Amino acid sequence: MHIIKKTLKFFLRPSYRFSIKKIKQLHIKKETSRLRKIKKDTSKLKIFYFGITEHSNLGDLAQYYCIQKWLKENYPQYEIFEFESTTVIDSRFNFIEKLHKILNKNDIIFFQSGYTTQDLGGNHEYMHRLIIDNIPNSRIVFMPQTIFFREEKNKRITSQSYNQGKRTLFLARDRVSYEMALKMFPKINVKLFPDIVTSLIGHFKFSKREDKVLFCCRNDSEKLYSNEQIAQLRQKVEKIMPTEIGDTTIKVNYKKIRKNLQYYIEKEIETFSQYRLIITDRYHGNIFALAANTPVIILKTTDHKVITGAEWFKGVYDDYVYLADSLEDAFELSKTILNKKDFSYSLNPFFDKEYYSKLRKVIEKTI
Description:
Blueprint: H1 2-36, E1 45-50, H2 58-74, E2 78-83, H3 85-89, H4 95-102, E3 108-111, E4 114-118, H5 124-134, E5 139-148, H6 152-162, E6 167-172, H7 175-184, E7 189-192, E8 213-216, H8 227-238, E9 243-246, H9 254-259, H10 261-272, E10 277-280, H11 283-291, E11 296-298, H12 305-309, E12 321-323, H13 327-339, H14 350-356, H15 359-366
Parallel strand pairs: 1-2, 1-3, 3-5, 4-5, 5-6, 6-7, 8-9, 8-10, 10-11, 11-12
Helix pairs in contact: 2-10, 8-13
């Protein structure tokens, strides 16, 4: 029976791949048709939000949720149109040409936040260049970005492209990315700004909390510590308090999540609120922990994203955020935190008040 299944799978694989490819093509064609129906009407203001999340990582989906929510609250007079990056970059249906025809001078383009100005993979960086190269006079806002380039050639191409954006605001979400952006993009507006998911911190209160620890760990190329090393740390922490392990990437189709974003994001934050401590190497694992009013120990990754992202919390949530220099240090920190009995488990909405309530004014002043 097993051999029969394997044989069937082998012969059906080409048909399956063809079907998936065809379904994607039809979806992109349909989405481009939606763009074509938008009229160039100077009396109506429009926002185009490009690069919305196409996978099941709740960290990136939380960015999508927060950006979507922020746009609706801050631009109620604008009509908002959302598109995936795979639609924007597909050349078969002339998306960029159609976009160019309907854009007015006061319309605004927003790019999805995240690890999207880089040459590690994905298509967002190409999408950015495609739009700026073809429509450089547009009002463009890069929601907070992490920058990282392995190849100097790719870095140079990106720099040349983005610097054409005459009315562009680039928000860098950590100190290293900000310093890099200032050098790469001297001709556009660059500002240091926290990840938009930080705007959720301070808006939730939970009463249920158990004596257990959550390890929220990634399983990709950014992972610094092996599964075996994490397991060893977990065994040591287990001697103090029971532990569980999870990740911000869940086994639910992203299309299903997008239909009920608020439910899934708030459910994840509520889950984080049930623990006494979170130990994570996830950028948004850190932020979800703080949104849940739960202390967090941050583990290092292979790049600067998580470590420099944690710098935002110095002097703001010092009793809740701890950066571990090593796994041994993480264990020592966990002992200290779990021995504390005086946590109030109530944080203030610092980033919402100090940054995101003021972002529209920043945009209006710069572009």
